Amino acid sequence: MALPRITSPHAKGANRTQQVMLQVLLACVPGILALTWLFGAGTLINLLWAGACALGFEAAILALRQRPLGFFLKDYSALVTAVLLALALPPYSPWWLTLIATGFAIVFGKQLYGGLGQNPFNPAMLGYVVVLISFPSEMTSWPAPQRVGPVDGLLHIFGIAALPDGWAQATALDVLKINQSLTIDELWTQHPAFGRFGGAAIEAVNLAFLAGGLYLLHKRLFSWHAPVGMLAALTLMSLVFWNGSGSDSHGSPLFHLLSGATMLGAFFIVTDPVSGATSNLGRLLFGIGVGVLVYVIRAWGGYPDGVAFAVLLMNLAAPTIDYYTRPRTYGHRKPTRGFKLGE
């Protein structure tokens, strides 16, 4: 019989991991409601299908590894990965796109390394990047706010019919990326992708994820270092390279904070305790690195939003950050970073 590997602390009561995951799911509710209200039922369909796929892939791999299904499935970590991935995917994504993204996230992003707590990369962002690189057309087909009905959306998901013309539009980050002649003021007045401060409708979604993130911060499920580091670095970078409303402008700090997946990334992705840095200083540096890379990719890279790529690149750097920011052990003057032969 395969015994479950349970790590310390061995406390009585509810599963601590389960409690944390449930709190994260609860914090996602404002963002889910905002996406559903503005873009239709496509987000809910994404969530249901991604959740079913994630649990199915998790159960299959656990069975192959001869691990107890009930114990590991009830920690809800696979469900959280599915929810974060579904929220990042465009509403009404084709069924096979969600299946590929979720399967890659669970199998190659999580279980390949031994399961929860051992993955070096954020599983949701890994699955997202795979489908973004492989299927760029489907990943940039965001519906226009409040333009898609549930019946038409389902027909599109199952490949029966395409969405009518005018029901999909480029995002504000897409428009700004390819703009060559219009000023920021002209873009704001002429293109429906722009809202009051950021992307149309997306600015409200970002505020909803900000509210959920502040709830998690209030519950002390993570420290402030990583999200503050990311948002501060993104704000500083966009302020330094902002040249007003010229045609070559990359957008204001407020535009970058309220566009794309900024708040989802800041409070639900970079705060991952497994794939990020461990010390407070390390988390701060990790967040700063993500914020800098997000702006670099948005302004000069090949993709309009760089949150997923920035997180994965900093996941690679997390062990090095931990090495140089290891806190001082009680009773020692300096942190020990290894042992010499013979000691």
Question: What does this protein structure show overall?
Answer:
This protein is mostly helical. The chain has 2 domains: 15-169, no CATH class; 170-324, no CATH class. The chain has helices at 16-27, 29-39, 42-64, 69-73, 77-88, 95-107, 123-134, 136-139, 150-157, 172-178, 184-190, 202-218, 225-240, 253-257, 262-269, 280-300, 307-324. The longest helix is centred in the N-terminal third of the chain and has 23 residues, at 42-64. It is globular. The model is unreliable at 7-14 and 339-343 (pLDDT under 50).
DSSP helix fraction: 55-70%
Order of helices and strands: HHHHHHHHHHHHHHHHH
Mean pLDDT: 83
- Give the biggest sheet: none
Taken as a percent bin, the fraction of beta residues is under 5%
User: Overall 3D geometry?
Assistant: globular
How far do the termini sit from each other? Answer: 40 Å
**Low-pLDDT sequence parts:** 7-14, 339-343
Q: Tally the helices: what do you get?
A: 17
Structural class of the helices, strands and pairings? mainly alpha
Rg from Cα: 21 Å
Domain count: the total is 2
Please count the beta strands (DSSP E, at least 2 residues each).
Answer: 0
